[in-house]
Design goal:
By secondary structure, the chain is an all-alpha fold. It contains 11 helices and no strands. The radius of gyration is 17 Å and the shape is globular.
């Protein structure tokens, strides 16, 4: 498998477009704790289809979340990170395996639906100010594992769980980053065994991951200056619109 061959199949315009969205997504992710998994499908699906998207984001997430871990590590709650990892490990592998069985249209339906549902879910949990203990965090992580294993843009669920467990601010971003590194490694292992990690997948993942590194530290520099509600509102609109486009395309393929 040659990564160079994967890059050769990408046009300069596609490279520029993906790099631009990856930089924007990494800045948003560094500010809000999520963004890459929600925004990257909007540009990747029209270019290469839905099937490779989750493997691409799983690999690139290693780079993205390692940079977030480095930037925010002192704020991380390692005990709660361990609770989530232990609870979600098996169900993450299960969700990733289920994803490998989907067709291109099926993958688009799953990703699109998850993106659309993530917006009202985040708002609902915030409005009701849900609070959970360690047991509730572990139980919620079981379900989160299935979703994160088989979809993109599910980071909002983990953030909601961590906030409900009492974390806030940079502590949420740091703890989320540690957990996401581990779940991404689990997903990559399953995808590798299933043979869905192609040269094209690696090429896009490396491009997104490399662009994400400076974006995360740029976000940290502005984290106390930029109003979070502004980019959150923009992200919500983009996520819902992108999800609708993906579902519409999938339905057309099925008809």
């Amino acid at each position: 498998m040659s990564v160079l061959a994967g890059f050769a199949a990408i046009s300069p315009l596609q490279l520029l477009l993906v790099a631009g969205v990856a930089l924007f997504a990494s800045v948003v992710g560094g500010l809000a704790g999520y963004g890459t998994g929600a925004l990257m499908p909007l540009v990747l699906v029209p270019l290469i289809g839905a099937e490779p998207v989750v493997p691409i984001i799983a690999i690139s997430a290693i780079f993205t979340n390692l940079s977030r871990t480095a930037a925010y590590f002192r704020y991380a709650d390692r005990r709660r990170a361990l609770i989530v990892i232990l609870a979600a490990a098996f169900t993450t592998a299960l969700g990733a395996y289920g994803y490998t069985l989907l067709t291109n249209a099926g993958a688009a339906l799953v990703i699109g639906s998850m993106l659309i549902l993530s917006v009202p879910l985040r708002r609902l949990l915030r409005r009701h100010d849900v609070r959970i203990g360690d047991g509730g965090l572990a139980a919620g992580s079981l379900g989160y594992g299935v979703v994160v294993g088989g979809t993109s843009g599910s980071g909002v669920i983990l953030l909601s769980l961590l906030m409900a467990a009492g974390l806030e601010g940079a502590g949420v971003i740091a703890t989320d980053a540690i957990i996401s590194v581990v779940t991404s490694l689990i997903k990559i292992s399953v995808f590798g065994l299933a043979g869905v990690v192609t040269a094209q997948v690696l090429a896009f993942a490396l491009l997104i991951g490399a662009i994400a590194l400076p974006g995360t530290f740029l976000a940290k520099a502005f984290v106390e200056r930029m109003p979070v509600h502004v980019h959150t509102a923009i992200l919500d609109v983009a996520v819902i619109a992108g999800g609708l486009v993906m579902i519409s395309a999938a339905v057309r393929q099925l008809l």
